[in-house]
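Just wondering, can you check both lines?
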Amino acid sequence: MAGKPIPLGQSLERLITDLGIGGRIAEQRAMLLWDEVVGPAIAQAARPDRMTRGSLHVRVKTATWRHTLIFEREKIRRKLNDRLGEEAIKEIVLK
């Protein structure tokens, strides 16, 4: 006899937890949220490239933008983590 039906969202959360992939999903969501969080000017000058163990690697078009973003990266990191609802990003590495 089958048990009581479980809502799909709850089933997916359980599966993500069981597979241990919650952190990876949050990291990928951070890359998708980049444009929205940083705004159009920064989004045109800097693009997320990859995530490695909590480090978001960002390619920056010019040295001038890299210099500017050095001072903004902690604020961007906090905003991304706020949107994610967890501390998925430990640092932002500018390249």
Remarks:
- The first strand starts at residue 46 and ends at 52.
- The longest helix spans residues 63-84.
